[in-house]
Design a protein that fits this description.
The chain is about 45% helix and about 15% strand. With about 180 residues, it is α/β, with parallel strands linked by helices. It has a single domain, classed as 3-Layer(aba) Sandwich (Rossmann fold), CATH 3.40.50. The protein has a four-stranded parallel beta sheet, covered by helices on one side. Helix 3 crosses helix 5. The radius of gyration is 18 Å and the shape is globular.
Amino acid sequence: MAKNKIFLHVGPEPRTLTHTDLIDHSTLLAGAGCLVPTIAQQALDSAATEMLRTHRAHGLHRRDVEGSWAGITRGLWRLGIDVAISQPRFAEADGDQFALVLDHLAGLEVHVILLNRAGTSTLPGWTTQVPESRLHVREIEDDAAAIDLAETITGVIWAVRRNDEQGRISRLRVFSQRRRTSRAA
């Protein structure tokens, strides 16, 4: 059985757009077969604070944010379908912090979406932890709106679906060729 996919927009741009903005355009992503779960922005912000270990900078204790990301990811597991979420602050993570983000998503096929401003090609150091086929770097304009974010993520989803389908077709061709050659022998 195929793993469920999570399309995780981690920024670094657009910083002003949030998961709540993505929820506003969830019907666009639903057309690509992907759910945008209703997650409170405060919960996602707590998760980012937990994963980035910036609770002190926000005047919080670790216990105030501990388990935030785990709670969100458990909810994603229960859905049992492909989902898209956005937390641009995750782009600030170092390698160890991003490894923690990914650890909570074990068992899901994680596709990381990095959106850079046009003409910028800087990638965070942790991108080496994500297989090249699951790291999607796209450019976005400075004045991007929520619909632009949703359209870009939808484009990534369709590209992944097309690649999956081409892979299935290739495997079927190989399988049918093996059957033909074994019958002829």
